[in-house]
Design goal:
The complex is a heterotetramer, with 2 copies of chain A (386 residues) and 2 copies of chain B (371 residues). Chain A has 13 helices and 8 strands. Chain A has 386 residues and is of the alpha+beta class. Chain A has 3 domains: 84 residues, no CATH class; 108 residues, Butyryl-CoA Dehydrogenase, subunit A, domain 2, CATH 2.40.110.10; 134 residues, Butyryl-CoA Dehydrogenase, subunit A, domain 3. In chain A, helix 8 packs antiparallel against helix 9 and helix 8 packs parallel to helix 10. Chain A is globular. With 371 residues, chain B is of the alpha+beta class. Chain B starts with 6 loop residues before the first helix and ends with a helix. Classes of the chains: A alpha+beta (386), B alpha+beta (371). At the B-D interface, helix 8 of B face helix 8 of D. Chains A, C: Its cofactor is FAD. Chains A, C: Pfam families: Acyl-CoA_dh_1, Acyl-CoA_dh_M, Acyl-CoA_dh_N.
């Protein structure tokens, strides 16, 4: 039992902190400090920078190009990343299709796609949800019909984050409608520039463009872009759901947000306003501490080689709820200062100027990636042995 | 006790609902969001024709003698329709302040608002004073006004503004032209238009000072309570729509081969929203009557309680509405997210929850003193 | 629209207040002020006193001996009753079996039983729940077999409040097991002194004896004690569920509790302790105001002859939750002073001395009379048109 | 970082669990509730034999050098078993205060506790000072002690008591015989035994004053943090049992022709409890280490956070446990309600949630000063 980091880990932290200090680009740092989200250029510049260090794919096994860090090191890295004001890595390439490829992909697929992810050059998006297959993914309808050396894909995906940035999409498609729902699904890699593929923006309630609809009309996808065999799509999707995600709770970024909010309390009008804000923040900090130590435990367990269990859902549920509560606190503590929506010049404290947008944006975090209600259903089955 | 709306109020509400149904839609709202600093002349004239410009004000000052309850009935429908036409910002808000100030100059200006000639906004907030409207940071030194005003809800089109300022220890209300200030215009969280004003030793004349001292304090305090009640009415209208839409969505949206309304957890969410909506309606009825009570302490306690309650439960209903809608709930295409912004906005526009809890406590202490 | 009471109602309030001042017995007043519950003697003395005024059965139609009060008057009466420190009336006779009898009973039954209830002389209890029929009442198993001029009752009831005080029980029994569950149930009046009927105490977590198990072994019940016809039990039970209860939210008693708590704040150790308590109480008061105005609306609607709708469940849910929250606040604000369980002499403020018991007792209020979860299920069906 | 319990701690926990399983039961608990001021000699001796009397204390003072983590492991099992034997009240609590005081007299008395000869209680609270243990209302004037102590957890059998008093501006810790005071004995919310003491100009001798001033402050402050950690351990043990029992109940209890665990609302309750229990466990591990940290500020921040969190979520788990059990959950016959009382008690015994939130804020400010 030891709640301190080892000396090696402390050294590691020091070196990462120093590197962050010297390397996080100023415009990105300022963007995060304002509470805004990076644009494509910033995001990609940052990921390429990490890629150039070999740090972007820190969760990957060394044989596929990971840096060989322990879960603790990855956790420390994430803390330093967040507190330096750098954005989290986009998950689609690094955390999702990458592990799928090195676990289920052919040698040719690995050679072709892994290096681009590792260097932050290829941007990916995830084609899962459909208009009538949101929470109920198994009912998806986008078809891929084998036609000689390629598939013809027809259908529609929705809620596709960053599809308008992406070079490639990994996609669940139905290759067989004669078998049980889950069995007829396959995992396909699709070039976003293929003719017949159309991306239409969906604007989110923060006023920004993150999401898209993607339409497929006779989109030709080479058969070598099938991962695993036909019908393995569901297995791969489930693999990803339980795949280790030591940073799923968002602890590092919540710390950053709470610290931003703390720094603005002095700008509040009266002593009472300040005291009430301090007390509200303290409540959030205590909850964050409980989340953080729970996260530490899963990190330590990962380093001992233990599989990620049901805690993973718990971290997601509590983490997203806390992110929402922090963003709500920021808006409400800001009060008047949070009301402006599109002015350049903040009213008073900078941090409140984007607070409402962030609050709006984060309403999605209890919905995407399996809503918290769905997470609880899954967890309940495990607990009750159903 | 009697909770039936007066026939007149019901008629006003029905008219407002019908008018908005015929003349406003989610598309109009989206169009209005994309406009800047523009007032839709036809709709503005229609509101005038409906008698809304005079409704909030006593007959003795040239109004049609409507009660706060009547005005709440309209504002509730504006909220339900997501309507951004600045009826509150350019008519009710400045008009009530002028009526409460009750001086010859203020009533003359009110007259021009009622007739539709004047476009006047209220600038009673600045970020240094926050919600503490009786202690603004704007200074009136002799004939010079200096300082800032923020979040001046002017619909983007006002040409005059009523500002509050401290003249020594004394509160003063001053009317001045917008172009006497440095103006920065922007959109607010609910999509409405506002401005920040910077006043750099602006020279004013004596007649621009509408009132001072206790008279000014009483006017601003009555205005604040009145506007708090309208915030609640607006949130109620929005919540009513969110609840109805969410119930309908739960009835029809299918997942896992069944409607999502067949899941017990969704059912309990809906029940919670239904019950909360009942209570929000009760609080609205309460504050619509007591928000203009002659008993200042009762009035303050009522508006503080209502706003504190709304900041909690009205916000909660819209958050849950989004959650039940899932993905589509977080898009600009659907109205649900816009209602969430409206409710969040209105929960903060005249005092947040903590501010009103503090007011509620103070009012309770004063009440005890009296008793 | 008028939020004030009429002059007549104000006069009514004045006269009731005066009467309460003069008539609520001191020992009862002190008992309530301590936060304790009245014993049988106090309860019955109080109900007889009301009975002697004709006020005990204030909800009854005049023809059966009600005082002819409007719902508003009843509401006012309840406010004055609570603020005078008198206990609520036991519901089993007045609010439950009474209305059943004058709605479904024979003339003979009315003559025989109503006067005793009206005068507060006969104490009733309710035999509904069984060990395996708690929330799921329709599955009850206690049998009544017709045998000439009487029924033989066999089985067991549980959670029977005040069975150890009661003279009579109204009871749901199964008279026919060949038909659909709900159809085979009948409504029977049983004398608690009948041989074969045994009452065993259940102690509640407040340390007191409120609840009982009741065992029936060949208990002979005369057929004239059947209310309505055989098989009507379920109809009668449902009638009671939707029967008007203007005081179901417990608003008057919550006011009393909040005022008790307010009066003790000055005894807290520091200014900070006091401020935090005041703020917590204010939050409860705001919620009470919302509940109270909702209650006012149902009272006014009742006076206009409108039926009690789904709001009734809403009032029960919010009311019980608020009762629990107030009792929890009292314990937590009391802090150290709430810890003693069985000392005569309070530590500091009197009110905290029974606070823990009350907090424990009130855990039951979201369970009995149909748990809040069941209430929500029923309400959901109505809302969703299921 | 490493969250594995040391082998030794695991062994201690296993032993405690086995010992309690073999020697204690719900029936023993009920029997103990009905006793007044009685110590079960066999079990008390058994605890001594297990080495528990010496475990919490450093080897240098005659103890067996167990860590807070070890003691938490035992206390957790005592909580899980609802065991009322006053191990904390008569051994750990007075012993740690004496160890922290660290004077020849205090260590001599500690020695007698470890050997099982002395039965000493701690009287650090009174209702005037509430949880503010560094500012008791008991006064030491020269050689005279006057005032009151409340909620002195003495298991009903202590013959000596350590009290805190203000001697002018200075805190002092005094050891005195119980029979020097007016004693009123009663049961507490969790079923344990306690006393109120009234001291009316009680004459004391110099050697009865164990320490004064900063030394006394530091000892009481370290004691308070240590006991806060034990509160959490006890609540965790109770919550663990409530969660397990509730899960089992949901799996087996039938209503409406099916197990209640098949209802989605019950399922989500259970999931919430599971997740909260995970986090409670994390907070317990945290506070079991940091609760005896040499860094006073870190120590205070850790215990404040843990107690504040437990007062919220541990209480919540037991409340929900009762609700899911329904009728049977509110009876004395079932253990669930007793766990609820235990957890409520422990959430209040060394500072309630608000008190610890204030401490947490203060610790945060101090931390910032240092940094």
């Amino acid at each position: 039992m030891n709640l301190d980091f080892s000396n090696d880990e402390k050294e590691f932290r020091k070196s990462i902190r120093q590197w962050m200090k010297e390397n996080v680009p100023d415009d990105i740092r300022r963007c995060t400090a304002r509470g805004a989200m990076p644009d494509k250029n910033m995001q990609q510049r940052w990921e390429r920078l990490l890629g150039s260090q070999g740090w972007l794919t820190s969760t990957w096994p060394e044989q596929f190009g990971g840096p060989g860090w322990s879960a603790t090191q990855r956790y420390i890295f994430d803390q330093e990343r967040a507190s330096a004001g750098a954005p989290p890595t986009s998950p689609f390439g690094v955390a999702m299709v990458g592990p799928v490829l090195y676990t289920f992909g052919s040698e040719a697929q690995k050679e072709r796609w892994l290096p681009g992810i590792q260097r932050g050059e290829t941007l990916w998006c995830q084609g899962y949800s459909e208009p009538n297959a949101g929470s109920d993914l198994a009912s998806l309808k986008t078809r891929a019909t084998r036609n000689g050396d390629h598939y013809l894909v027809n259908g529609q995906k929705i809620w596709t984050t960053q599809a308008h940035w992406a070079d490639m999409m990994f996609c669940l498609v139905r290759t067989d409608s004669t078998v049980k729902q889950q069995q007829g699904i396959s995992f396909l890699l699709i070039d976003m520039k293929t003719p017949g593929l159309e991306v239409r923006p969906i604007y989110s309630i923060d006023g920004h463009h993150h999401l898209n609809e993607v339409y497929f009309t006779d989109v030709k996808v080479p058969v070598e872009n099938l991962v695993g065999q036909e019908g393995m799509g569901w297995t791969i999707a489930k693999f990803l759901l339980t795949h280790e995600r030591t940073t799923i709770a968002g602890v590092a970024d919540i710390h950053y947000e709470i610290n931003r909010l703390k720094s603005a309390i002095d700008a509040l009008p009266t002593e009472t306003d300040k005291q009430l804000a301090v007390r509200r923040l303290a409540g959030l900090e205590v909850d964050l501490m409980a989340l953080e130590y729970t996260n530490f435990r899963t990190v330590a367990a990962t380093d001992e080689g233990k599989p990620f269990g049901p805690e993973s859902s718990g971290l997601k549920i509590k983490g997203t709820e806390l992110q929402q509560r922090v963003s709500q606190a920021m808006v409400e503590i800001g009060g008047l200062m949070s009301l402006p929506w599109d002015n350049e010049e903040p009213i008073g404290e900078q941090i409140f100027n984007q607070a409402s947008r962030r609050y709006n944006f984060l309403r999605a975090c209890t919905i995407y990636g399996g809503s918290n209600e769905i997470q609880k259903n899954v967890l309940a089955k495990m607990l009750l042995g159903l | 006790m009697d909770f039936k709306l007066p026939e007149n109020t019901t008629m006003i509400a029905d008219t407002a609902r019908r008018y908005l149904k015929d003349n406003y839609s989610f598309d109009s709202y989206i169009a209005q969001l994309n406009e800047s600093n523009h007032l839709e002349a036809n709709r503005w004239q229609a509101m005038n024709d409906l008698g809304w410009f005079g409704l909030p004000f006593a007959e003795s000052v040239g109004g049609y003698g409507g009660s706060l309850l009547d005005v709440c009935a309209i504002v509730q429908e504006l909220g339900a329709a997501l309507c951004l036409d600045p009826f509150v910002d350019l008519i009710v808000s400045p008009g009530k302040l002028l009526e409460f100030a009750n001086t010859p100059t203020s009533l003359a200006l009110l007259d021009r608002i009622i007739s539709g000639e004047a476009r006047v906004a209220c600038g009673l907030y600045d970020r240094h004073a926050g919600y503490h409207v009786l202690n603004p940071s704007l200074r009136l030194n002799g004939e010079r006004l200096s300082g800032q005003k923020h979040v001046v809800s002017d619909g983007g089109v006002a040409d005059a503004v009523l500002v509050s300022a401290m003249s020594g220890d004394e509160l003063a209300i001053v009317a001045l032209p917008f172009d006497a200030c440095d103006v920065e215009r922007y959109r607010l969280l609910d999509g409405s238009r506002a401005a920040s004003l910077t006043l750099d030793d602006v020279l004013i004349t004596d007649e621009m000072v509408l009132c001072r001292g206790d008279a000014a304090k009483q006017a601003v305090s009555a205005w604040f309570d009145y506007l708090c009640a309208l915030d609640c009415a607006r949130m109620y209208g929005a919540c009513r729509e969110v609840y109805q839409a969410t119930l309908e969505y739960a009835r029809t949206r299918k997942q896992f081969g069944t409607t999502i309304g067949s899941f017990q957890v969704i059912q309990h969410y809906l029940v919670d929203a239904f019950i909360d909506l009942q209570q929000l309606e009760s609080m609205l009825l309460m504050v619509s009557v007591k928000g203009e009570s002659a008993n200042v302490c009762e009035r303050g306690r009522a508006t503080a309680a209502a706003k504190a309650y709304y900041a909690n439960r009205a916000v909660g209903i819209t958050q849950q509405g989004i959650q039940i809608h899932g993905g589509v709930g977080v898009t600009e295409e659907l109205n649900i997210g816009h209602y969430f912004r409206l409710v969040t906005h209105a929960s903060l526009s005249h005092g947040d929850r903590e501010h009103h809890m503090s007011r509620f406590i103070q009012a309770g202490e004063k009440q005890n003193e009296v008793v």
